[in-house]
Design goal:
By secondary structure, the chain is an alpha+beta fold. It is built from two helices and three strands. The protein is globular, with a radius of gyration of 13 Å. Helix 2 links the parallel strand 2 and strand 3.
Length: 83
């Protein structure tokens, strides 16, 4: 499928590193099909701006963010997009 250019938004967010797949956000679908972000604690203690990225994006896109009782240390967190 072809993605429409108006379906893409660029958002400037302060961050410490470029490794966005290491600190999230993880996008999920809620039971009603609406999107939400999962915000896990990013365990890199010197990268506070990276840890804040999921909440900043949730606010920017006006979708809920749920705090997960997990700590992540990075490592290319990927999803197949099929739930």
């Amino acid at each position: 499928r072809k993605l429409s250019p108006d379906a893409v938004q660029f958002v400037a967010v302060r961050h410490d590193t470029m490794w966005a797949r290491d600190y999230g956000p993880l996008l999920v679908r809620q039971a009603d099909g609406s999107p939400a972000l999962v915000d896990a604690n990013y365990a890199e203690f010197q990268r506070h701006q990276d840890d804040a990225v999921p909440r900043v994006l949730a606010g920017r896109f006006e979708i809920p963010a749920f705090e997960a009782p997990l700590s992540i240390e990075g490592g290319n967190l990927l999803s197949n997009g099929r739930g």
